[in-house]
Structures are given as structure tokens and as C-alpha cells.
Amino acid sequence: MVVKSELKLIKSLQQKKYRNEHGLFVIEGKKAVEELLCSSFKVFKIYVTKDVLPIKNIKNQEVLLPKEMNQISSLKNPNGVVGVFYIPNAAPVDFSDWVLALDDVQDPGNLGTIIRLCDWFGIPSLVCSKNTVDCYNPKVLQATMGSIARVTISYLNLDIFLSEVSVPVYGSFMEGNSVYSEELPKTGVLIMGNEGKGISNKIKKLCDYKITIPRHGKSKTESLNVATATGILMNELRRE
Amino acid sequence: MVVKSELKLIKSLQQKKYRNEHGLFVIEGKKAVEELLCSSFKVFKIYVTKDVLPIKNIKNQEVLLPKEMNQISSLKNPNGVVGVFYIPNAAPVDFSDWVLALDDVQDPGNLGTIIRLCDWFGIPSLVCSKNTVDCYNPKVLQATMGSIARVTISYLNLDIFLSEVSVPVYGSFMEGNSVYSEELPKTGVLIMGNEGKGISNKIKKLCDYKITIPRHGKSKTESLNVATATGILMNELRRE
Q1: Given 1.10.3720.10, 1.10.390.10, 3.20.20.140, 3.30.1330.30, which CATH number is that of A4-86?
Q2: Which of A72, A165, B108, B159 could form a disulfide with B139 if both were Cys (CB 3.0 to 4.6 A apart)?
Q3: CB B122 within 8 Å of CB A218
Q4: What's the ipTM?
Q5: Strand B24-28 to strand A169-178: parallel, antiparallel, or no bridges (unpaired)?
Q6: Pairwise CB contact (< 8 Å): B221 & A119
């Protein structure tokens, strides 16, 4: 049984303010919870329903009735596993490989897809501006499909961060040079901008190179979705 | 004023059954409606609220009160322009360029993003299996951002279509050859599969080449999102 205070705590973690206050976040789904349990994330408590096999080797585990699961889940159709984990401390950015930086990406689905892309392409560090959507937002976590376990994410003051880095800084712009004709180095920072406004002027000034994905045909499409563009550019970074 | 029968008709077009029955679909937003008006799509009627400037050179246009707009719009926050257009007749597939084919893509957001990608990369023809989500679904249209005006979409029996084509057929598989090492021709068909199941066995047998986007690092990510993977592969087709 979930006591009232616990229910209130878990529900409050839907909001960034309370996640930061308690240093905790919620992730749902057996696979995602198991991936976090195998990572460096520290578990606070796991809740499961009887129909889901209990997750092995975990002490802080509570079996709930479906009715109780409905109360703590943020999903319309709860999938039987809710994990509460500690938000990890900030880790250093790994400059031995490409670093991805986001300038105010707002959509949770986009950030989730981008985290999944970092995982696929083996980009170890993701740096987010302070106004980028919170990576512990339930909708972001849902879209990461467990990839958050394998990507180090930092929320930093992006202009201070960029003015201090010693690797080349690449920004994705509509009016940049074709990425096909750039000789991309082995390490650097790649910046992707906000969905509507792109990279802000303040950050633009800190870019050493402006690159773009060439448009083909007589298209009037204004721009590619930021997550799709990130995928294409990461692929370019990783091409042999 | 919208008469009751008209209101009923427009609302019914949220459902595929009624779209096919009436041969009509609804698209919302000034930009998307204007793009369709500049294309070969034929307009049935446009509805606007007074705060939105009426769209020029259109006779079948009706100014509505905000209350009425709320009734016909499928959006929580209607944006003041609703267009009703005729579903065009099936057009022939253009084999003079790459053709994209989808095997049962289910998510409206994914199909919308893929249509936008066809537009960006200048892929003229998109072929969808009969079980792919309907491209006139309001959520698909919302995600296309008007790109549907510039891509020819056909719903066909995919196995019959593929068994009759004379260009090489490429399928995207987890276990395919690295796309980086393939010499891609100037024309062909690229097939992308369902979100959960990938390309079905029936269609797999009709693929001449199986390609994949290489995974980097020690990632456990199961797969890339189908729209992101489509973007990366289209970029590969268009690379000089």
C-alpha cells in the first residue's frame, strides 16, 4: 500500500520545482526502470503491480494493487512499473568526443529523441542551456526509451560554457555552409537551436563554424524538425 | 454562420471512414491552407475568424465567430483558419527519382515528419502500404507543416507494387549492411518499416538490398525512431 504522503511525493515529481526540491524523478516502464537499475543512477523506490514480475535484486520494491498504480502513474494506461530515482550530481563534460549542446530546445518529445540519438551515436555528453526543457520531465523520459541511463546531461549557462571550451564550436543554421563540404574534426561541440527561433544571437557569436543540411528540390519547407536535423548531423559526425 | 449540416460534415472528417465517403479532408492553420491553395489541391471551403485577414482570391470563404470556429476546429486552441479540401485522385509514382515506401507506419507524428522530410529532400513520391496511417488524418497534417502540398502520396498494396518495379529496392533493417559502404544509385525504392515490427517478412523478401545506419559506442538502444532513421537515410541518398 502507498501511504498518502508517498503518493503526494510521487505526484509532486511531475513538476520540475518539486523534482529539484526532493532531488528525485519518476520513470515508468519495466525496460526503462531495468536499464536505470543497471546504470549509475541510484534507486529510491520501485513500485510494481502483481501481474508484472517483480524486478530481481531490488530491495526497495513495493507491490501495488492496480488501483494504487493508477494513482501514482502519470500515464493513461499505466504499464505496471514506476521507478523513483535520485537525480544524479552534475558530471564533467567529456571533451574526448563530440559534445552536443542545445540552445533552449522546448519540446519534450524532441529532447527525448535527441537523448536517444546521443545514445545510438555514442555521444557521451549532452549540454543543455538553462531554458532547455528538463530531461527529467516525464514526457522526455518516455521518449528516451531508457537511453537516459547512458548519456551524461548537464544544464549549464551555455554562453559561459562555450566561451571557455578549447575545441571548435559548430552551430546548425539555415544559412550555414553545407555539412557535406565541411571537413569535420574528431572532437568539437555541435549546437542545435530552439524549435522556432533557432540558435540565439548571443550563442551565434560563439560559433566558430556555421553548418547546414542542404535542402533539395524546390522545397518551401521552412526547416527540418530539430530532432531530425540532430540525427542527420550526428550521422555526418560519425561517417567514416 | 455554419449551418448544422455543414458543422456535422466537417466534424465527421476527423474520421477516415467519412473522409473517404465524402472525398474531403480538413487542414488547419493559415500557412498550411495557403500552401494548399497554391498547389494542385482543390478547395471545397475555407473558414476564417475576423481577426485573421481573409485569404485573398478565394470565393468559397466564410467568416466565422470565434465560438463557431471552436465548434469546427479539432484543436484545443484554434488558430483561426480551417480549410476543407478535396482528396486528390491517385497520381502515378515518379520513378525518375528515389521513391520512399512505408510498410505500416502507424504514428501520425512520424508520418507527418516523413512527409516533411520528402519535401525537404525533394523526394517526389511517397508510397504507403494500405495499413499505414492515413495521410489526411488531422494529426498527420498538423505535423507536415504544409508539406503535403508538395509530395505525391499513394496508398497501394505494397507487395504487388514492389514485385512490379524495375528499379532496385532497398530496405532499412537492423541487420543490414552499413549505408556508409553502399554505392547508392540515382533511382530506387527505399522502404522503411513499422515502428515496432520493422519491415514485414512478406516485404523483406522483395528487397534487393538490406541497409542499416551503423550504431556507435556500446549503445543498447534498440532502434532509432522511424522518422529520424528516414531523415538520416534520405540524407545519405542526397549526399554528393
Answers
A1: 3.30.1330.30
A2: B108
A3: yes
A4: 0.88
A5: unpaired
A6: yes
Q: Please tell me the least confidently modeled range out of A98-102, B2-6, B121-125, B132-136.
A: B2-6
- Asked if residues A189 and A158 have their Cβ atoms less than 8 Å apart, the reply is no
Cβ-defined contacts of B181-185 (< 8 Å, 24+): B182/B209, B182/B211, B184/B236, B184/B237
Smallest CA–CA distance from A237 into chain B, residue: B216
- Residues 63 through 122 of chain A touching chain B, CB cutoff 8 Å: 109, 113, 116-117, 119-122
Q: Is B167 exposed, middle or buried (0-12, 13-18, 19+ CB in 10 A)?
A: middle
Overall fold of domain A99-238? Alpha/beta knot (3.40.1280)
Res B75 pLDDT > 90? no
Backbone φ and ψ for A160, nearest 5 degrees, come out as -65, -45
Contacts for A136 with CB less than 8 Å, ≥ 6 apart:
A16, A19, A25, A87
DSSP A175-199: EEEEGGG----SS-EEEE-BTTTBS
> Please, what is the average pLDDT of chain B?
92
Residue from the list A180, A231, A240 with its beta carbon closest to the beta carbon of B228: A231
Start-end of CATH 3.40.1280.10 domains in chain B: 99-238
- CATH 3.30.1330.30 residue ranges of chain B are 4-86
* Contact between A120 and B219 using a beta-carbon 8 Å cutoff: yes
Please determine, for residue B239, whether its predicted confidence score (pLDDT) is greater than 80.
yes
Neighbours of B129 (CB within 10 A): 21
Chain A to chain B, count of Cβ pairs less than 8 Å apart? Answer: 102
Q: What's the rounded mean pLDDT across residues B168-193? A: 96
- Residues in chain A predicted with pLDDT less than 70, given as ranges, are 54, 217-219, 221-222, 240
